[in-house]
Design brief:
By secondary structure, the chain is of the alpha/beta class. It has ten helices and twelve strands. Helix 1 packs across helix 2.
Length: 262
């Protein structure tokens, strides 16, 4: 197995195994991608799907046969037309239009969590460790359905083993949707923290404020605030049928996350 990493100094997170080759490079540099693909017939693309169009061009140019598993996002289904949503759409379109030499599968996980550096659950847990008061935009009754990272890994492995998954797109999510408030409460319980006290912020003024702040600070994207006004719950029936996808219950996944990270 060969891993193309942007910063070799951060490869400490990868297993120390003689079968694993670390190659430093950037998906923005064609020469780096060509070198990483040398002798490779299977590609698991876990970087942002915005790199997919260039990756498909390079894979096509080599003239070789590939099996490609690419990680996309349920952001594609957002009703809000944003630059990020369109980038996801364009990335998926490039993959779906790939030549027959590239046998592809697209996986669309919802909010992915697990490990010590995820940008979702871990960020909430860090905030709760500092402050019991937790701000939410709107009512906090919008639905979310996070995906445990090990369920995503399992789905990738199943795709590699199952020809039926070729030229298909699969949505992945947790076993059942929950309100954003309930998710935050569950995170606090799993992390051994006090029950949070929610501070409700009006949604529309918060979106406007985030848009203004985005001119000088990108710490709170306006889109992230805006999405508190839509449910992010998904059907995973095709993945269950073709990949045997059976997501881990949220409370159990949280217990594993915080136990493994202790």
């Amino acid at each position: 197995m060969r891993c193309l990493v942007r910063d070799a100094e951060r490869s400490d997170a990868l297993p120390d195994d003689p079968r694993l080759e670390i190659v430093e490079g950037s998906l923005d540099a064609d020469d780096d991608v060509f070198a990483a693909l040398d002798g490779i017939d299977t590609v698991v693309h876990v970087a942002h799907i915005r790199f997919a169009p260039a990756l498909i061009d390079i894979m096509t140019e080599t003239g070789r046969q590939y099996r490609l598993i690419s990680i996309s996002s349920t952001r594609l289904f957002s009703r809000f037309v944003t630059t990020l949503r369109e980038v996801v759409r364009e990335g998926e379109e490039a993959i779906c239009q790939a030549p027959p030499s590239i046998r592809w599968t697209i996986l669309r996980p919802s909010m992915v969590f697990g490990g010590t550096e995820d940008n979702n659950i871990e960020r909430i847990a860090r905030f709760l460790r500092r402050c019991r008061l937790f701000p939410i935009f709107g009512s906090g009754q919008n639905l979310v359905q996070p995906t445990f990272v090990w369920d995503l890994v399992d789905a990738i492995e199943k795709c590699l083993e199952n020809p039926r998954a070729e030229e298909r797109c699969y949505t992945l999510a947790g076993p059942e949707p929950m309100t954003y408030r309930d998710m935050v409460r569950a995170i606090a319980r799993a992390a051994g923290l006090p029950t949070p006290v929610f501070v409700r912020l009006p949604l529309k003024p918060s979106v406007f404020a985030a848009q203004v702040l985005s001119w000088v600070w990108d710490g709170l994207p306006a889109e992230a605030v805006q999405r508190f006004d839509e449910d992010r719950s998904f059907l995973t029936t095709p993945a269950e049928r073709d990949l045997g996808f059976h997501p881990t219950p949220f409370e159990e996944a949280l217990e594993r996350k915080f136990r493994d990270n202790a």
